[in-house]
Amino acid sequence: MKEKIICLSFILLVFLFGIIINAFYNNNTKTKKYIKVTMKGAVRHSGVYFCEYGSSFAKIIETAGGITQRGYLPEGLDYNMPITNDIIINIPTKYYSIKKNTEGR
Length: 105
Prior knowledge:
Layout: H1 2-28, E1 34-41, E2 47-52, H2 57-63, E3 87-91
Parallel strand pairs: 1-3
Antiparallel strand pairs: 1-2
């Protein structure tokens, strides 16, 4: 009877050890998903970037070198919004009115 208990305990221990190893192995081998983001407009370095799935809007703009002095983002834009699809982002430039010198006419 004692041998059966020892044998069953050993089998249970090996089974639990296998489950623990499998759980750690599955957590460490998760592959990261990347998305393609095309940056255009008033950013320092326009182009195509590959970012991790769920990266924030602010992180993607930072990857492109940031917004130039003439660029702007609309009010109310959520900078922490996660990007989950391939996307094209066009940063618009500010509109400047040019005043002509009409005094000499």
